[in-house]
Design goal:
- Helix 6 links the parallel strand 4 and strand 5.
- This protein has nine helices and eight strands.
- The two termini are 33 Å apart.
- The N terminus is likely disordered.
- With 226 residues, it is of the alpha/beta class.
Amino acid sequence: MRRVLTLILCLGFLTLPAQAAGGQEYVALTFDDGPSGRFTRRLLDGLQERGVEATFLLCGYRMEQYPDITQRMVDEGHEIGLHGYSHKSMKDMSRRDIAQELSDCQALLPRGYVPQFFRPPGGCCSDAVRQVAEVRGLAILNWSVDPQDWATNSAAAIEKAVLSHIHDGDIVVLHDMSDSSVQAALDIVDVLQEQGYTLVTVGDLARLRGISVRGGKTYTKFPPAS
């Protein structure tokens, strides 16, 4: 009887999906509002030391200030998405103004770089935003985990807010605009790597999950297939 039960259990494990049988788990870290000088440089240094690539949603006026950092992001394998030129809310903007914000922002990217994601400032998404994004072939990128790091200077609070809610396929929104946010981000990477997660860009996460993102569609996470 024991042999029969053992055989049944073995057969059961063989039929489990790869994810349930110990497949790799992924998380994407995203950073808004930069580049921001020393904060972004420190973050990039830390990510490079850890072998991690992230997704940065950049503002045009900041890329004008730090073109070297923008180029470094691309050189080191990070993904860049658009966050508008001015960081003004697009909630009540006309389609023409939204298109201008995106054009002015994209024009500052390194030569030949074609973004696939756009995150409206504050995540505000109107019909006009969706329509412009669709025309320009940009997927709208939101998030599934938000520690509101912009509202605190406590790295520990940011870390707790992320790590207590993280799941396979999540997209985390952070900001490379303060020492506390940068420190929290690097600590989060360390903990997640220790837990067996792999940190990837949003684009890579989508591809790993077999999803071809579409312009104008909003994405918040890419969980494993159930």
